[in-house]
Specification:
Shape: extended
Number of strands: 2
Structural class: little secondary structure
Largest sheet: 2 strands, antiparallel
Amino acid sequence: MRDIKMDLLSTEILTNRLRLKPVSMAYKEEIFSEFTEDITKYMCPRSPNILLK
């Protein structure tokens, strides 16, 4: 059996209607603004109150 390794941190999936990209710090403001308490209710650790630079 071959050992195939994929670099998932740079893999992008693109279709006519969708682009999936790995999470990165380039999107930290967008991600932070959507991580409300309702979204992260059952996550551990809880959502942060501030975004550190």
